[in-house]
Amino acid sequence: MNKIFKPVVSFLKKEDGPTAVEYAVMLALIIVVCIAAITTLGKSASTTFSSVGSTIGSTTGGTTAS
User: Fold this and answer.
1) Sign of the CA dihedral with 58 first, then 61, 63, and 65 last
2) Tell me, what's the pLDDT at 58?
């Protein structure tokens, strides 16, 4: 019976598993922050480009180049 529990106890004492989990959690948080930043910047850039486009459109009389 001791032969069965010895590998289990050895596995539970290793710190490789928790380290991998910590890295996975950090990676997930970094991805969430990146997605939030890209979403915010994308909306801001879209608003800016729309504003510039409407200003240029009103300046040229609403015609577009072909």
Assistant:
1) negative
2) 80
